[in-house]
Automatic annotation (TrEMBL):
Gene3D superfamilies: MetI-like (1.10.3720.10)
InterPro entries the record matches: MetI-like, MetI-like_sf
Organism: Rhizobium skierniewicense
Membership in a protein family: Belongs to the binding-protein-dependent transport system permease family. CysTW subfamily.
A Gene Ontology BP annotation from the UniProt entry: transmembrane transport
Protein name (database record): Putative spermidine/putrescine transport system permease protein
Key words of the record: Cell membrane, Membrane, Transmembrane, Transmembrane helix, Transport
Matching PANTHER family: INNER MEMBRANE ABC TRANSPORTER PERMEASE PROTEIN YDCU-RELATED, INNER MEMBRANE ABC TRANSPORTER PERMEASE PROTEIN YDCU-RELATED-RELATED
Residue stretches spanning the membrane: 12-37, 69-90, 102-123, 148-173, 194-215, 251-272
Record's subcellular location: Cell membrane
One Pfam family it belongs to: BPD_transp_1
Recorded GO CC terms: plasma membrane
Principal location class: membrane
Entry annotated with the keyword Transmembrane helix: yes
Length: 286
């Protein structure tokens, strides 16, 4: 009797999970396996790791990998510095709050290629800001196609801040006000309450925002291609260049490296959140 009930529950669970699992296998697992096979197979069908070797031995590829990581990390740092205060501001009541809450999300609807062109128009030498400060005898530093990729970082931050702010705002909003009141009642200042209560409780949401922003910035193609320096091209740009030249095996290998890097960051995220999540707290209490 009991075994029959358990079998029925397992069958029901399998039927409930089947659509989601099937979708992942078809639209994620299938292309990933196909790319993996294409990255290790030559035209004659023989096995090779040559295309991966090129990524980690060719100077342009190594520079592309480090540039991709750089374009992933720097926008996250700058976006986080902007998004946390912005999320705290949105929680306050002030005149025009609803209008502001709608306007700050507009960059999410703007394509990356448009953002790159906007950066060129505004920050390029001879652009809008440069001409604006010219009567004062000032000149903007080189911000577009510069060696440090400042134009890429500016464009990525402008694009990613609303997305990160939206997630962090939701994370802070999910914290019960009673916890904050209890902290203040016990003598903690607003700053200490924020640092030792709000931030730890919102950390799963904050780390999720960091993860998604990092993956999006690292894999971006349009912005680095338009406003990035020509001497240091990220792997995403090199990948498209190889695709246009018909080097499909190399495209698969680059795609696999980027995917494995993203999966590694995702696993690190799950490891981190499991340590700071409710389950860990229960384990510590035990």
């Amino acid at each position: 009797m009991i075994s029959g009930i358990l079998r029925n529950r397992r069958a029901q669970l399998f039927l409930l999970l089947a659509p989601g699992i099937g979708y992942l296998l078809m639209f994620f697992g299938g292309p990933l396996v196909s790319a993996l096979i294409g990255s290790v197979r030559q035209e004659d069908g023989s096995f090779t790791l040559m295309f991966y070797e090129r990524i980690f031995t060719r100077p342009s590829m190594i520079r592309g990998l480090t540039t991709s990581i750089y374009y992933g990390v720097m926008p996250v740092i700058v976006s986080l510095v902007v998004s946390v205060p912005l999320a705290l501001l949105i929680r306050k009541n002030f005149p025009g709050r609803k209008l502001f809450s709608g306007l700050y999300k507009l960059p999410m609807a703007v394509p990356g290629i448009i953002v790159g062109l906007m950066v060129i128009v505004v920050f390029e030498r001879g652009g809008f800001l440069d001409r604006l400060v010219a009567p004062l005898g000032l000149q903007l530093p080189h911000l577009v196609r510069d060696d440090w990729g400042i134009g890429v970082i500016l464009a990525s931050v402008w694009k990613q801040v609303p997305f990160m702010t939206l997630i962090i705002t939701s994370a802070f909003a999910a914290i019960p006000e009673d916890i904050r009141y209890a902290s203040r009642t016990l003598g903690a200042s607003r700053l200490k309450t924020f640092v030792f209560v709000d931030v730890p409780l919102a950390m799963p949401g904050i780390t999720a925002a960091i993860l998604l922003t990092f993956i999006g910035s690292m894999g971006s193609y349009a912005i680095p291609d338009i406003v990035g320096p020509p001497t240091a091209r990220p792997l995403s740009v090199l990948m498209v260049q190889d695709f246009n030249q018909g080097h499909f095996n190399q495209v698969y290998a680059i795609g696999m490296v980027l995917s494995l890097f993203a999966i590694g960051v995702l696993l690190f995220y799950y490891s981190l959140t499991s340590r700071i999540g409710p389950g860990q707290n229960r384990g510590d209490a035990a």
